[in-house]
Write a structure and sequence with these properties.
Order of helices and strands: EEEHEEEEHHEHEHEHEHEHHHEHE
Radius of gyration: 19 Å
Strand content: 15-25%
CATH superfamily of the largest domain: Medium-chain alcohol dehydrogenases, catalytic domain
CATH architecture of the largest domain: Alpha-Beta Complex
Distance between the termini: 16 Å
Structural class: alpha/beta
Helix content: 25-40%
Number of strands: 14
């Protein structure tokens, strides 16, 4: 039988199980995808821990995951032009991508460019569309300076590149271990920690816009640097939205197949790199999320359900 990640109650890593499940069957407008890669994201851990129960109620047992890339195994009625054997990148809103097979809406996939690896394709949707929304929300222009907190993470590493493509000067706040990668992508790296505000003021004359992809007190830091609230976007500190009037644009604002297709094109053209920190077999899902929880990861961690 096919295998899938599930959890039967809210909790820590110990509630995650890889279990045998019936082979899913696609209905009208649906595709059955043999999943070659599925990204993992912090939001999934929060849902599993019950921290987002009000926004995303869960019935048990629950599957997990949204990002996916794979090969169409079966196409339900009304899914033309898709046919079995097509390589696709997509997403599911059914919390079921971390599995050997997943049913997805035919409108939620795009064709995978031949030059994009399975690992990158399978971890592109959530981080990539979130980065697109965050950058668009603060709209950096040529001649402006954008600072990004969490610049080497899944969202930040894509966001800094999109901002550079827009012509902005980009400052990436990240651990020293990832400064070389940031520099190689035209980003000015600055180490986080005590004295960050002084280091930022020394690195650039001013900061016009700010993306917080980490949390803690980065929104307050942006305000202290003189950034206007409407040019600050956080994907983590939602309490700051009400307190300071900053933005919280993320995946919900850009999570479409159209945006996903544009991102896949940028990756295929070599204009955006999605760094893969590590790929794990499905059975190692607990270790994968443990690694994610530790932080300081460059780019994305991905599961290979059929690897």
């Amino acid at each position: 039988m096919p295998r899938a990640v599930q959890f039967g109650r809210y909790g820590g890593l110990d509630v995650l199980e890889v279990v045998d499940v019936p082979r899913p069957e696609p209905g009208p407008g649906e595709l059955l995808v043999r999943v070659e890669a599925a990204g993992i994201n912090p939001g999934e851990a929060k849902i599993r821990q019950g921290l987002m129960a009000d926004q995303f109620p869960t019935s048990f047992p629950s599957g997990q995951g949204s990002d996916l890339a794979g090969v169409i195994e079966e196409a339900g009625p009304g899914t033309s032009p898709w046919v079995p054997g097509d390589d696709v990148i997509g997403f599911t809103n059914r919390r079921g991508s971390q599995a050997q097979f997943a049913v997805v809406e035919a409108t939620d996939v795009v064709r995978k460019p031949a030059g994009v690896s399975w690992e990158v394709a399978g971890s592109l949707f959530v981080a990539g569309t979130t980065a697109c929304a965050a950058v668009a929300s603060v709209a950096p222009e040529p001649g402006e300076t954008l600072a990004v907190a969490g610049a080497s993470g899944g969202v930040g590493s894509i966001g800094v590149q999109l901002a550079r493509l827009a012509g902005a000067t980009v400052v990436g706040i990240a651990s020293a271990a990832h400064h070389r990668w940031l520099s190689s992508h035209g980003v000015l790296p600055v180490a986080y920690g005590d004295g960050l505000d002084d280091r930022l003021r020394h690195a650039v004359d001013h900061v016009d816009a700010f993306i917080d992809a980490f949390g803690d007190d980065y929104v307050q830091l942006a305000l202290d640097l003189g950034v206007a609230p409407q040019r600050i976007d956080t994907i983590v500190d939602f309490s700051a939205v009400e307190r300071f009037g900053v933005k919280a644009e993320g995946n919900a604002s850009a999570g479409t197949s159209a945006v996903l297709g544009e991102l896949a094109g940028l990756v295929a053209e070599g204009k955006v790199e999605v760094p893969i920190a590590r790929a794990y077999p499905l059975d190692d899902v607990r270790e994968a999320y443990w690694q994610l929880d530790r932080g300081h990861v460059l780019g994305k961690i991905v599961l290979l359900p059929n690897g």
